[in-house]
Amino acid sequence: MASLRAALPTLVRLGVCLLTCAVVAGCGGSGGSGDDASRQANSPSTSAGTRPTGATGPATSAAASPSGTPKPKPKPHPSHTSAAPGGVARFGNPGGHAAVPAAARAVDTSHPTRTVGNGTAASCTSAAVVAAVAKGGVITFSCGPSPVVITMTATAKVRNAASTRVVLDGGGKVTLSGGGRHRILYMNTCDQAQGWTTSHCQNQSTPQLTVQNLTFADGNSTGDTTEGGGGGAVLVRGGRFKAVNTRFVRNRCDRTGPDLGGAAIRVLDQYEGLPVYITGSTFGGAPGQGGSCSNGGALSSIGVSWVILNSVLSYNTAIGTGANPARSGTPGGGSGGALYTDGNRYTVHIEGSLLTHNDAHEGGGALFYVSNNHTGTLDIHTSTLRSNPSHGFSTPGYPGIFFLGAGHPNVAGASLS
Hints:
There is one protein chain. 7% of the residues lie in helices and 29% in strands. It has 417 residues and is mainly beta. A hairpin with a 5-residue loop joins β1 (82-83) and β2. The radius of gyration is 20 Å and the shape is globular. Residues 1-79 have low confidence and may be disordered.
């Protein structure tokens, strides 16, 4: 399966992806395909059950507070960054109060397996990060008392057999930068070059990769066709992945393509269909800091569930043109300003979060959700979605959203405008 994917220069159809991962839990059965969803997307209907073209829903709130009065807007906070009593920078939505399950919380790193650096900024190098990630375990940084930027000259890659768990904890002081040239972090349980550990690589429980208290900046995967492309800062396939108190700024991936995406993070396959957790994290956060890609200016996936808690996704852009599949004469893409998801049965749950000022050239200025067989669900609770223009199509009554799934989006205590 991995060799088949590697042979594909681009992921031009979601149907190709689903064919290669049809056995993956949560990736859908043999019935759905990106082509099916996109044929509905390009139909003239504007109902919630089909994907329209050239139409947007009314810019009105889809939900109000329980009392029926509009929920107050959060106080302006340009970077959505604060400092905890211990001095560690805190990202995400300071006004978010969603309960965080144990599986979505930070990992205890008080007893690290290894440490990058010997107490000075000069000792914290790209080579040291690459070596530490290859060895695995719980990784912390000792780069001196001041914040430090480590410019990666190569992508750090998880070795599948080296460790069942890989944790990168920057202590709130470390930025890993792709320098505008490199993807920063990579884990792929089906990449034999990183070690073949099971016969069911697309559905194995390890490695479990966690990034926390870090900043990922200026990652760029443009031109990298691994797993169909995308994942400007982080690309994951298989195992488990979560991000806690982590910031992603100015990341990039290919400007065109009908299905590739995820300027910050691209995920394909998770063990037993368990969700990716994003907790207390920021994607963009201020003008000029957002990510951009053909689809999914922040996050993108196929057949993967997400739980996004107390986070900020703002100023991200889906810059492709032509949707999926690409309309005649166009290269395709342009959906999901912040979040682009596709597949069959999977879920997206957003709670305590802000999605503002994201932009999609085609559909879903804030988020694009397609369940090809109409079995997947989207839940948005106690969150604010505001000023997320969709320049091609959206689902009427849900500003900034395109949804094709089971019923309608479940919006509770949230404000959409």
